Amino acid sequence: MERMPNPSRVLYTSWSSTLRLPKSTFPPRTSALDRAVLLKKCTDDLYSWQLHERPLNNPFVLHDGPPYANGSLHIGHALNKVLKDIICRFQLTQGKRVSFVPGWDCHGLPIELKALQQQQRKPENPALADDTRPDADAVMVRNIARELANRTVEEQKKGFREWGVMGDWDGAWRTMDRDFEIRQLEVFRRMVGKGLIYRRYKPVYWSPSSGTALAEAELEYRSDHESIAAFVKFPITKISDDLASKPGVDLANLYAVIWTTTPWTLPANKAIAVQENMTYAIIELPGGCQLLVAESRIPHLSKVFLREPVKFLVQHISGKELIGTTNYMSAFQDQIFGPQPFIHADFVSADSGSGLVHCAPGHGMEDYEACAKLGIEVFAPVDESGCFTRAALTRDPELLEGKSVLSEGTETVLDYLEANGHILHTHKYVHKYPYDWRSKLPVIIRATEQWFTDVGCIKDAALKALEDVRFIPDSGRSRLESFVKGRSEWCISRQRAWGVPIPALFHKASGAAVLTEGSVAHIISVIEKRGIDSWWTDAREDPAWVPPHLLDQSGETAYERGKDTMDVWFDSGTSWAMLRGPQSQDTGPLSDVYIEGTDQHRGWFQSSLLTYIAHQSAFKMSGPVLTAPFKTLITHGFTLDKDGRKMSKSLGNVINPSEVMTGTLLPPIQRKGNRARTTNNNGSVYDGLGPDALRLWVAGSDYVRDITIGTPVLKAVNASLHKLRVTVKLLLGALQDWDAKGIVDYEKLSQVDKMALLQLSTVNRTVLEAYRSYDFYKAVNTINRWVNMSLSAFYIEIVKDRLYADEPQSLSRRAAQTVLFQIYMNLLGMLAPVTPLLVEEAWHHTSAAIKNDTQHPLKRPYPLVQGEWNDQALASDLPSLLKANDAVKLAQELARNEKKLGSSLQSSVHLVFSSSDSDPSATYRLFQRYLVELESLFVVSSVSLHHLPIDRGFIDQAEWHFSTEFETVEGDKARAYVLPPAAAKCVRCWRYNVLTTSDAEETLCDRCTNVMAGINEMAHAFSGDCYEQTVARH
């Protein structure tokens, strides 16, 4: 019989083959092909699964603030959509049935202008070459705009899905969809019935560049706008008898002085406002000209244009004395309007101008309010293009007609005033001024007939409803409340074609409008049959649109349809109607969360609140207080480049989300042939980590503030993601042979194992609270810190020896696997909301034994924590143990710096405490309790404890030694000494714990000797030819 080869000699040349080194198929990066498959599983498939499996009575609704269907996606879109997805995914881990139906805002001016520009480029439409007005061809414009919006929605949808955002993409809504428009009109109908919609001729923000009225939310303010300001004098035609009797007062030479930053509004002047509680004076200039000004403004006027000392004729004139007794003559409309009055206005201030304010109720909101109370009619001689009409100057209509009020019209007004002796002084003035947020050009205030929503009668209910809303951050409450408080009405009509029509009828002869709940209901019924485009395509005199009671006996009609469309904020503001039945009268919050950027306090948040309050009030007879449509309102900041600048095409700092996913914003790396890396056109290779990189950047940012993104930030994100992938791979390798049947009960675990579970329990609590508080960056920071310090640098380092070198079915190895299994499952649970692709990929590479015994990490509840893990006694001891561990690690680093130490196993540790044998300190007793596990805890070959005074002989005689002092939690001082180990090295596990040896080359420790005995026993059962294979397997 052939002799069996000596196992010891065979193993000597291949000790690693006797170790159970971790093996896993989990790759360093995901291939593009695998990513597509995994992405579908963790988005579409997961969303569909939870709709069918999660109970209907435990819902979570996040209502999508619709992005505008105009243009490519940018990093701001990514911030918004990924935040929404993280919120939904966390709620999924809490057992909720999540509802997230994406939406798009499709109407409005930007899309319409793009449609017109596209049409202009077509040679078969020469009539539109220079025409961007809404009367060009409404039907054509609407068709092109719809095509443009449809194309953009699909492009954006593709991008959103590539970011790992799950939702009901097939059921996504668009504001241009038939169902949405009908729901919107139904909300409008009820508001009409409640008396909240009315038409009025009054000043509104008007955009000459866009040719339409604008709401406050459609404005942006520039602080560098430059105007020509002027001090202008108007001749006073009447004063009180008391003033007329004052010595020196000459009515023929007496003028009222006003200051204006908008001289173009002077042709529309209808009054001069004073403050009844201010005091005024009449002064005389050299040459006899007498001026009425506020006393407090005279020092300022002296600096500006009163170059010579002035003579006071009358002082201490009460503003109240001027009201009702003083008239003046306009420089432009004197022949039409005659003498104009002095009135009181609260907005008159002693801090600017002359203390007298020119009022043009057709061109100023405050002017309108002040004049309307007194019955002063509105006059606005400016057309929709922002040019003067003939009525601006009746005595010479051609002088101003057709001139833009923002350019040559202003200059002509000033020239006219100068020629007629009305100008005292002009100067340039830089100030804050409203601009059209779309065209980026200045707007004007212009009186037109518009449709308004009465906000004044519902604002108290809206403010009351906000009391029950949770705001994140807290400052969002005061911001939204301030916008609601400052609003009395909402101009909802727009003079454009691409939108939902305001369903009003107009009498063809008188122009009188008809808008009742009944007439709107009739029009909705026609739209349901014919489609909304028929509002523009049907003949103007088609009687089908007119309610029967307005038709004459022959069936003919004297009415025609209006041309105005609704403000797009009304469109998106009524999107909450998609969360309920079309005719539902239910009240209460419809969505758990609304989340958008900070600019939406005056936009979508406000319009949603107001329309929902108005809708509820239309049904309210009695019962509960009206509510907001949202329970929690979250606002996020804007994205900035690495230098803190806002992103814009002109600066060239706009970031495409795909650049984050492909890694092309980072420096190129050396080509290593990995298929998951991105290669660009010039051959450079980039470290592309896919949507998880984008999502981890979002989750790791404190989003309630403005967020920076650039190469430094993304380097840190990629490093964190790589670390997570390495950790997952290591855990999968450690659990390659995991069997749930071998799980070890908690009471049988070592203290080190229990420490790891205690840390896991603690990190789970912190992460869970961070997710619940929507502080995602705190969750990410906690996970990263735990993975890097408590897991990778602590527990995994500790248990490697057990995992690799212990007998496979030993209690110690199974205990380590038990803990690592809990760590693995909870880590995936922590990461599920943030990096779902990583979690899905990890699960794909998880062993069948784990899959068969455990639910998918994206589908199961999080966290999986057992109460016994939170061992308070251990929690009390752990800080002192960790302080000692830190001291040991520091002393080892000192040894490494001196080239004395490589592996930490090449050291022995001696802890010296400031206590005695007769009176051991509490700290000493603490470490004494854990003595048998300190070797594992410190990952060294031996540990001993000592009191003071210590016999330093063994220290001084050592080849080298290093030490560091540490202070325990109890406040005791101690010192950790690191020395070379006294024992010999085990050639299998490399621990220095072999006390005697006869053959240094084949020295094994007791543990490894026992393990090898088992391997040798198996080896004798086989022939020598298969021996190496057997060893490799076991």
TrEMBL record:
Q: Which InterPro entries match?
A: aa-tRNA-synth_I_CS, aa-tRNA-synth_Ia, Anticodon_Ile_BEm, Ile-tRNA-ligase, Ile-tRNA-ligase_type1, Ile-tRNA_ligase, M/V/L/I-tRNA-synth_anticd-bd, Rossmann-like_a/b/a_fold
- Catalyzed chemical reaction(s): tRNA(Ile) + L-isoleucine + ATP = L-isoleucyl-tRNA(Ile) + AMP + diphosphate
**Localization per record:** Mitochondrion
In the UniProt record, does the keyword Aminoacyl-tRNA synthetase occur?
yes
Q: Name one GO cellular component term.
A: mitochondrion
Q: Which positions fall inside the Methionyl/Valyl/Leucyl/Isoleucyl-tRNA synthetase anticodon-binding domain?
A: 753-908
Q: What name does this protein carry?
A: Isoleucine--tRNA ligase, mitochondrial
Q: What is the lineage of its organism?
A: Eukaryota, Fungi, Dikarya, Ascomycota, Pezizomycotina
